[in-house]
Amino acid sequence: ASLAGYATLYAQEDKVKERFARIPDAPTAIYKADVLPADGIIPEECRVDGVIAPNIGFELRMPTKNWNGKFMHYGCGGACGLIYNPQLTEPLARGYAVIATDMGHQGQTQLYGYANITAIIDFTYRATHVGTLAGKEIVEQFYGKPARKSYFMGCSTGGVQGVIEAQRFPYDFNAILVSAPAYGTGPSYLEWGARANLDKNGNGIMDPEKLPMVRKAVLAACDELDGLKDGLLMDPRQCKWDPASIECKAGANTQQCLTSAEVDVVRKIYAGPMNSKGESLSTGMGGMAKGSEYGWSPSFIAGKGQTATRIVDIGSSFGRGFYPNVAANAEREYDYDADPQRGDILSWLRYGMNPDLRRFRDAGGKMIMYHGWDDNEVAPGSSVDYYETTTNTMGGEAATQKFFRLFMIPGMGHCRRGPGGDAADFLTALENWDEKGTAPDEMIMHHLIKEQNYLGLPRPIYPLADGSYDRTRPVYPYPDVAKYSGTGDPKDAASWEKAPRSAN
Fold first, then answer.
1. How many Å from the N-terminal Cα to the C-terminal Cα in the chain?
2. Contact present, 439 and 433 (Cβ < 8 Å)
3. C-alpha R_g of the chain
4. Within 10 A of 219 (CB to CB), how many other CB atoms are there?
5. pLDDT of residue 233
6. How far is Cα of residue 203 from the mean position of the Cα atoms in its chain?
7. CA 234, CA 232: separation in Å to the nearest integer?
8. Treating both helix axes as pointing N-terminal to C-terminal, what angle do 260-271 and 186-195 enclose, rounded to 10 degrees?
9. What is the pLDDT of residue 185?
């Protein structure tokens, strides 16, 4: 019985192939389909590999038993170029049929786009949509009926996949869960953080060993704004600390303070990308948040006197990949005066900040977005700005929160990790909102004892096992923040409450 759907794919092989090849807007070919045995929490599955014209590779995993009737598209990260199939474990274990694509190319650099507008189109928006169309069709053929619910889930590039789906293809998904959407601010944001630390000769200015001193000063000034000294800032924008407060005095030991050049480095990193006139190139809070300094090295502030490698990795590959008139073998730095304007030729493809979500709202769509305040890869202020702009466009906070809610996570880095809570069952919250009408008024964040690796693998399986986390704390839909009640164990979410709006 578990092979019935698998057999369907091949019982009338020619007709099935023809049907997939004729999927409107998403002609598809399957080149491999295998039934794999159960393995731990992973149920027995039919794993299908295929390609959507012209070059979008995908993997679709479908439980052969106890399918929950739902379909999920799981987003990728960075430049994509491969499928992180371990990330599909969590939804598969929940009974989802889940698909992921390579976004139309192989290899994890932006060079895929060099002189290849088709590849750029597939990566920026098309692959997500047509992958969803193909996945739904294969699921229907496999199970003999269509999925009753369709969800999207992703972070970083996966996050912007989700918001673009809501904006451009509002009928693809019933609900969307996104984290840290890389709206297009990524290249300049990343390179700026490293370039801010370079002198005129290209050498690093700041000693990374001073970063703990900077963070200590930030926390001394702002940590107790939420009622508890615990190493976390509930909303870093409330912190008005200036690095000049620890600038070296004449004759001071410069290892115990910041030189004037180092003060300037810290200010630039907080401010975010600017042109040569000092004008911000960002929306919202364009730079890295106060309190995130523990994550600045080595990606942005390398060893003393050294250059952070992200300048070459991000700047040159971005320039060669997206600007076809740049020589394919030439390193290219991001030009903060010229490139923002030059980027407009392709920004309409990647731009994911359209606040007009009326079609998504009217289709009954729900979206949960969350972003770590300590994110050093995608500006956290960009999500705040997008949400506030959407709120202004969609009729105010109350009207917007009926279908779209943002959670800003204190002390969380890019998609995961950090000293704050970095794990919460957002997927169940999304399901409850879409299927039961229960909006997420509060999320309980768990701080994992064993930190996930950069890719966030393995994905946490909920409910979390006892002993896998050491503290919990609530987060509330933006703009609300949590405040310690003054009594009880501060490591227990029950000891926290929503701060009065006047204190936010």
1. 57
2. yes
3. 24
4. 20
5. 94
6. 31
7. 6
8. 170
9. 55
Question: Which two structure tokens, joined as six digits, stand for 184?
Answer: 């297009």
CA 309 to chain centre: 22
Q: Which pair of structure tokens corresponds to residue 400? A: 């917007």
Q: How far is CA 170 from the centre of its chain?
A: 20
User: Any idea which residue has 């809070």 for tokens?
Assistant: 285
Amino acid, res. 431: E
256-259 contacts, C-beta under 8 A, 24 or more apart? 256/213, 257/213, 258/210, 258/213, 258/214
- How far is 351 from 334, CA to CA, in rounded Å? 18
What would the mean pLDDT of 290-311 be, rounded to a whole number? Answer: 81
The pair of structure tokens assigned to 156 is: 């970083």
Distance between CA 245 and CA 257 in Å, rounded? 9
Q: Which residues contact 83 (CB under 8 A, 6 or more apart)?
A: 57, 58, 59, 76, 100, 101, 102
What 3-state DSSP class applies to 133? helix
pLDDT at 192 over 80: yes
In this predicted model, which residue has the larger pLDDT, 295 or 328?
295
Helix (H, G, I), strand (E, B) or coil at 253: coil
- The CA-atom distances, in angstroms, between 421 and each of 170, 275, 293, 466 are 31, 35, 17, 16
Would you state the structure tokens that stand for residue 354, as one six-digit string?
Answer: 């359209």
Strands (E), 134-214: 149-155, 175-179
pLDDT band of residue 2 (cuts 50, 70, 90) is very low
